[in-house]
What we know:
Chain A: The chain crosses the membrane at residues 20-40, 52-75, 109-131, 143-168, 174-200, 249-269. The complex is a heterodimer. Chain A is an all-alpha fold.
Amino acid sequence: xxxxxxxxxxxxxxxxxxxxxxxxxxxxxxxxxxxxxxxxxxxxxxxxxxxxxxxxxxxxxxxxxxxxxxxxxxxxxxxxxxxxxxxxxxxxxxxxxxxxxxxxxxxxxxxxxxxxxxxxxxxxxxxxxxxxxxxxxxxxxxxxxxxxxxxxxxxxxxxxxxxxxxxxxxxxxxxxxxxxxxxxxxxxxxxxxxxxxxxxxxxxxxxxxxxxxxxxxxxxxxxxxxxxxxxxxxxxxxxxxxxxxxxxxxxxxxxxxxxxxxxxxxxxxxxxxx
Amino acid sequence: xxxxxxxxxxxxxxxxxxxxxxxxxxxxxxxxxxxxxxxxxxxxxxxxxxxxxxxxxxxxxxxxxxxxxxxxxxxxxxxxxxxxxxxxxxxxxxxxxxxxxxxxxxxxxxxxxxxxxxxxxxxxxxxxxxxxxxxxxxxxxxxxxxxxxxxxxxxxxxxxxxxxxxxxxxxxxxxxxxxxxxxxxxxxxxxxxxxxxxxxxxxxxxxxxxxxxxxxxxxxxxxxxxxxxxxxxxxxxxxxxxxxxxxxxxxxxxxxxxxxxxxxxxxxxxxxxxxxxxxxxxxxxxxxxxxxxxxxxxxxxxxxxxxxxxx
Lengths: 274, 311
């Protein structure tokens, strides 16, 4: 446990030192405030429109950005240290490979968590202070859910990044694979599902369940669940209107999406030669 | 006394290459053993086997009383120091931060960090980033890292590369101090002249095979290499090629102020008597074969079919 905390501490300090935390928080805050303020630009207006529109736009932003940031942050966790030559030394120290990876996860997870809370938190405070006629309680719960699910989504992709990182032996290859993973989960899956949706004429009851095969869709469902009435749902997630896709069920599914790749990464790391 | 390192018929393949072939090795506590060999001879593989980074395909490895991988690893690794070949660290951290990080991982008291930085002569550079360090400074930081926690077994892979002569001497002095405290040291080196006075035994590897093992005296006895006798004086006109009782005594070089002979070990005294009887000889220097000669001798036995010398 001690070793896990040491690794995590170093990783988090590195995140502060090389400004990852600051950069992520600033990017998220700037984009979130921008979206809140110019959300009505499409309809010719300026200024804050409605909470539902803002949160929907924010979650759409997060779906693209958070996985990319997480993959960039963590893809070289193992392969980077291997290329630098520090991994060889670390593996001769009294710490297990499991603790090494768990420590890394804790550190990277904390970087992403702190940055997301800061970024979206600042945006939430700005909206609460600047916008008129916003129900503060509703805003707090909506932003809270957005932050929680964003952090979980980030951790999912950190776990994916580790799986890549323990599998390859070159940093460049890991970076390429990370982009492929991002592309598949964030863009291609959506399009594929849409195509399937259009082609299936009857008896497509099973289609919504396919959404659970992609953590980014789970994330979307969590954040859009509250706004069915608002009619602001767009895209393929609209097929999943119904009782089963509630945050109480979706959040454990996201947790599973963290644990499975992380577990596989640990297994692979333990059984590969140094 | 139970050996610190015990190899029994250890074999390790890597693809088609045989890195280590049926190696037997036993190292006693407090011994300094040098691993010598070409690139690809199996030095680093031997160290990795001792560290438990790789497992042998055949045979049995035991380090400090247990297998280096598995449940014994945790306790073993706290009593072990390792300096890898081409050591590298986190460039953006300072020397002190790097060492503190490793000290925490090894669960060693923080006080040792400054003590070790002092000992390897990095105190003044401790707060600078590793990025700005020279090769020699990195090597010294690597050594400090290996010495954390007063290890009972030290594995040093090419420890003196990048060190200047003074630092090399300091380094070997540190090795000697450690040995006097009962620490077992295994070191591999290309720089043979420096290492000779500080080692107890040498293991010469070639293509994963043990070519020779023993103390300097044992290796000399086994190799039966001729020794070099250098005679000084006004000896130019003398026909030194003739007049010897033993035909194996040969003149290997003829300089302005002396002659160098190559003499078999058992003819040493005969040659000395002959030279001391000659009034023109002013001085005699006796040079037994060095580790370098022995290394060349033993590795030459295998080099024609040396596979993968550069792999």
